[in-house]
């Protein structure tokens, strides 16, 4: 079964609140027969679109192929949070990699957020960007650790945009009685992820990249030949930017990058009640291992994400799946209708750090952003574009990151991960 088609109709965006409210782009024509290119990019999400934009700007003949529509995958379905740093905290990275390598990753993450801001400004991308992400903790110990980490960032990284929040200060912003405190990062932000992806696609096309939608890549042959159901692209270099939808295009990458499914809902407009849920226009992510994340839409809906699964198929009742954690956070919303529910496939690595590599001569790959991909996937596209042109410093910083394969092979890794996640869910429940 192909994840590209397991849960979605070909060429159609999912029935999400984003797809319903975001002005669409006119479709890009499918590939029509064989052609040559300097670079062929597989995948029309943030990584592929950013790579296409930067390569086209540099004057390279660039072709991007997407099996569905640009922004179809996780790039157009996620919670829209543009976070600081990497998926792992700096103290964990220092212990794992040493202070020097950890510092390079911090500065690359800062460059990623800056790149998102620059692209939004330079290309007039109307994606409702707003500053501020609250990180809410379910325990007093977690709150103390979050406050200590804010101080570490100020002291060691000269980053003073993280504001500690006591329980009362957090509750003044987030109307969720279970949280014990947290922090707010004013350097981070949130946006409409599909609008951002479509803005990148428009910018890449205007820069000269050729984009072909509804063009399914069947395989990549030796010599950087991309074989699709619409024709072949004979390229000097190939960039694999399919993330959770990579499938069998490269088994070395697939062994280290595992697709998982995550889910979101949108409530009906909350009206005056919206201020009792979030009193400020910020996004929130909490300390559960399976993270709850949410924000308000411009029309006053709660956009809430929570719940994961590890098979190919989405559950039949996404609303029921996500309503459970939503009501754990906001029990006062038990009478509120859910008007939209959708799922998406992202990709994780065992280290929760992105996997960038060259799995074969002439082939570059970036994936496994582990829920931290709005900024990092955008940066990864630029990093791959630089590497194709011989500028490899940032690429090598990422390529040195540990990324062991998942145990169990293709048959057993999903069940093993499901068991591990069940253990962490139990820890969340009992407050460990």
UniProtKB/TrEMBL annotation:
One of its GO terms (molecular function) is oxidoreductase activity. Gene3D superfamilies: D-Amino Acid Oxidase, subunit A, domain 2, FAD/NAD(P)-binding domain. Keywords: Oxidoreductase. GO terms for cellular component: cytoplasm. Pfam families: DAO (PF01266). Signal peptide: none annotated. It comes from the Bacteria. Residues 38-386 form the FAD dependent oxidoreductase domain. The keyword Oxidoreductase applies. The keyword Heme does not apply. This is Gamma-glutamylputrescine oxidase.
